[in-house]
Amino acid sequence: MKTIETDRLILRPFKYTDCEDLYEYAKNPHVGPNAGWKPHESIEESKAILKNFIEEDEVLAIVWKVNNKVIGSLGLHKDCFRTADNVRMLGYVLSEDYWGKGIITEASKAALAYAFTDLNLELVTVQHYAYNQRSRRVIEKCGFHYEGTLRHCTKIYNGNTYDVMCYSMTKDEWEKLYG
């Protein structure tokens, strides 16, 4: 994926030198569980995840311009619920230190522009667990349409099973909102 710049952020491919920043936010017990993954237990675990990010080229580092620090990640992944071509699922995570500043909304809107113009996608989906109201607000602010709830859908790392709230946006809908 290519580098994207917004007013406050740089969204760019991860580098191996980002490992300490990744570990710093990924070890926080309030961050990963909102996305269904366990907090990182070691820098080695973060290194393995980072290697995967770099090899798969689906995830961008969210860099805060003020201090040039990696504060989260944003990905455009294959949507496991859809087999149609030209569809990706948006996913994101942000350091708790930066919550409540509109950063993920800003990053997501930039990613949508990239998805619909550069990647020529026809649909972008996004999901959140029912309890993750911060993520729901981001999704609403971006203009996604609620599709429904998949009840008792996903079992996460700790054995808990959660409902998944599903949303999508077509290219035509994006053009009407932002084009």
Describe this structure in a few short sentences:
With 179 residues, the chain is an alpha+beta fold. Helix content is 31%, strand content 32%.
How would you characterize the overall build of this protein?
This protein is an alpha+beta fold. It has one domain (4-178): Gcn5-related N-acetyltransferase (GNAT) (Aminopeptidase, 3-Layer(aba) Sandwich). It is 31% helix and 32% strand. It has 5 helices and 8 strands. It has helices at 19-26, 43-56, 103-118, 133-142, 171-178; strands at 4-5, 9-13, 59-64, 69-77, 87-94, 123-129, 145-155, 161-170. The protein has an 8-stranded mixed β-sheet with strand order 1-2-3-4-5-6-8-7, with helices on both faces. Strand 3 (59-64) and strand 4 form a beta hairpin. Helix 1 (19-26) packs across helix 2 and helix 3 crosses helix 4. The chain is globular, with a radius of gyration of 16 Å. It starts with a strand and ends with a helix.
Key terms:
alpha+beta; Aminopeptidase; globular; 179 residues; 31% helix; eight-stranded mixed sheet
CATH superfamily: Gcn5-related N-acetyltransferase (GNAT)
The oligomerization state is single chain
Strand adjacency order, main sheet: 1-2-3-4-5-6-8-7
The Rg value, from CA coordinates, equals 16 Å
Number of strands: 8
Order of helix and strand elements from N to C terminus: EEHHEEEHEHEEH
Task: Give the N-terminus to C-terminus distance in angstroms.
Answer: 22 Å
Number of domains: 1
CATH topology: Aminopeptidase
Quickly give the structural class: alpha+beta
> How many DSSP H or I helices?
5
Helix content: 25-40%
